[in-house]
Amino acid sequence: MVNGKKIVVVMPAYNAARTLRQTYNEVMAQGVVDLVIVVDDGSHDATAAIARTLSGARVHTHAVNRGYGANQKTCYRLALEEGADVVIMVHPDYQYTPRLIPAMVSLVASGLYPAVLGSRILGGRALAGGMPLWKYVGNRVLTLVQNMLLGAKLSEYHTGYRAFSREVLARLPFEVNSDDFVFDSQILAQIRWFGYLIAEVTCPTRYFPEASSIGLAGSIRYGIGCLRTAIVYRLAKWHLVSSPLFPPGGRILDETT
């Protein structure tokens, strides 16, 4: 616990057998995590079996692969059921270092920020860490357009390393979001829609064969989905369209924040 808050790490897992245990051990080594929830999304390897050997972890499995967004929905639902006050998503492929957990948790548990992102871009080391050039360029272009449409100033929207307060997850209608990768951008747009601030901490980038990654075709579909989400947000803000992603009554941030 931190400041009397229950800290729960969620791991949306898919074919992560080679890195799951290493990631889990380093998560628990941080000394602030009360519970780890692993949700296996119909993996074809031994991910679920290995997860069940992790002492103290709660394991949930999807009988079939339902998608990255659907996996996150299950993760957050289970974390809230467990009484989590702070929820941190850590990918079990060891691309993001668990050593940032205490810093991210402290920003949320102290009440300073309700959402924190581990940014691969903020420290200026994404390319040196192995991020492919085409992914880096796509990340920068998408982020620029998303910032313009959402009225934000984030360094990136596409990191999978995130911490949320219970209040944020309990309020957001994330169940209506995509079951695919675009879930990541949709939930950040919803955080903006409901008036919550988002902090960022610099996160080292680590690309290696075991790390999960979207291919070119998937990245193009993801990019189109991100742009669509941002455009719908802007049109909903102007009261030109309605969307279940952005329901009436959300306290929309002023453009200057």
Which regions have little confidence, pLDDT < 50, spanning 5+ residues?
A: none
Strands in their spatial order, largest beta sheet: 3-2-1-4-6-5-7
Helix content: 25-40%
Average residue pLDDT: 93
* Helix vs. strand class: alpha/beta
N-to-C series of helices and strands: EHEHEHEHEHEHHEH
The strand count comes to: 7
Number of domains: 1
Which shape, going by the Cα principal axes? Answer: globular
CATH fourth-tier homologous superfamily = Spore Coat Polysaccharide Biosynthesis Protein SpsA, Chain A
The proportion of strand residues reads 5-15%
- State the separation between the terminal residues, measured CA to CA: 31 Å
Supply the CATH architecture: Alpha-Beta Complex
The CATH topology label is Spore Coat Polysaccharide Biosynthesis Protein SpsA, Chain A
Task: State the helix count.
Answer: 8
Q: Measured on Cα atoms, how large is the radius of gyration?
A: 17 Å
Tell me about the largest β-sheet.
Answer: 7 strands, mixed
CATH class label? Alpha Beta
Characterise the protein shown here.
There is one protein chain. The chain has a 7-stranded mixed beta sheet, with helices on both faces. The model has no long low-confidence stretch (mean pLDDT 93). The radius of gyration is 17 Å and the shape is globular. The chain has a single domain (7-237), classed as Alpha-Beta Complex (Spore Coat Polysaccharide Biosynthesis Protein SpsA, Chain A), CATH 3.90.550.10. With 257 residues, the protein is an alpha/beta fold. 37% of the residues lie in helices and 14% in strands. The protein starts with 6 loop residues before the first strand and ends in a 20-residue tail after the last helix. The protein has 8 helices and 7 strands; from the N terminus they run βαβαβαβαβαβααβα. α2 links the parallel β2 (35-41) and β3 (58-62). α5 packs parallel to α8 (216-237) and α7 (183-193) runs parallel beside α8 (216-237).
